[in-house]
Amino acid sequence: MYGFAALAKLNAGYLAGGRIEATFPNRVFWNQILHGPPLSEAAVVALAYGSVATEAWLAVGLWFRKTRYFTALVGLGFQVALVVLFSNGLIHFLRLGVFALLTLLLYLAFFSEDEVFGSGDGRRSEKRAFSKARAPT
After folding, report:
1. What is the C-alpha to C-alpha distance for residues 131 and 125, in angstroms, rounded to an integer?
2. Are 86 and 72 in contact (CB under 8 A)?
3. Which residues, 6+ apart, have CB-to-CB distance to 88 below 8 Å?
4. Whole-angstrom Cα distance, residue 102 to residue 1?
5. Per-residue pLDDT reduced to its tens digit, 45-96
6. Closest among 60, 47, 41, 53 to 6, alpha carbons compared
7. Contact at 8 Å (CB) between 109 and 116?
8. Number of structural domains, the chain?
9. What is the DSSP-derived secondary structure letter of residue 10?
């Protein structure tokens, strides 16, 4: 998903910040709740390049054990930023929030059962190891 998103954004229109700039001024959460300042052209271009780099990293980083936790944290920050920066009203905020939550839940597929529910160090939990030792062969 992230890989295709990054590839789809590798065009002059997106990287110049046009798509971000077109949607950003109308974002209620950023403008009215956070009272965020208008974004400069350089900030919009930085957001465009940053989003492509982040999505490219997320497409690769979750596959490797050494980068998985860091990448999951980057993904969490990315999803929160999308919801905060690009929500336009309560309904849109909820839709983006549900999408972000579902996307983050997909990260669980990259972690072992023990990393999610067990000891967190990637080894089998004691309970599981004990039940396997007692199983008939």
Report:
1. 10
2. no
3. 23, 26, 27, 28, 29
4. 13
5. 998 999 999 999 999 999 999 999 999 999 999 999 888 877 777 888 899 8
6. 53
7. no
8. 1
9. -
Give the span between the Cα atoms of 131 and 63, in whole angstroms. 29
Which residue type sits at 61? Answer: G
3-state secondary structure 24-74: HHHCHHHHHHCCCCCCCHHHHHHHHHHHHHHHHHHHHHCCCHHHHHHHHHH
Query: What angle is formed at CA 74 by the lines to CA 72 and CA 77, rounded to 5 degrees?
Result: 110
Residue 121 clears pLDDT 80, i.e. is over it: no
Q: What is the pTM of this model?
A: 0.73
- What whole-number distance in Å separates Cα of residue 17 and Cα of residue 24? 10
The dihedral through the CA atoms of 97, 98, 102, 105 has a sign that is positive
Q: How many helices (H) and strands (E) does the chain have?
A: 9, 0
Give the position of tokens 């909820």: 94
Residue 14 dihedral angles phi and psi, to the nearest 5°: -75, -45
What is each CA distance from 14 to 9, 34, 41, 55, 68, in whole angstroms? 6, 25, 13, 14, 28
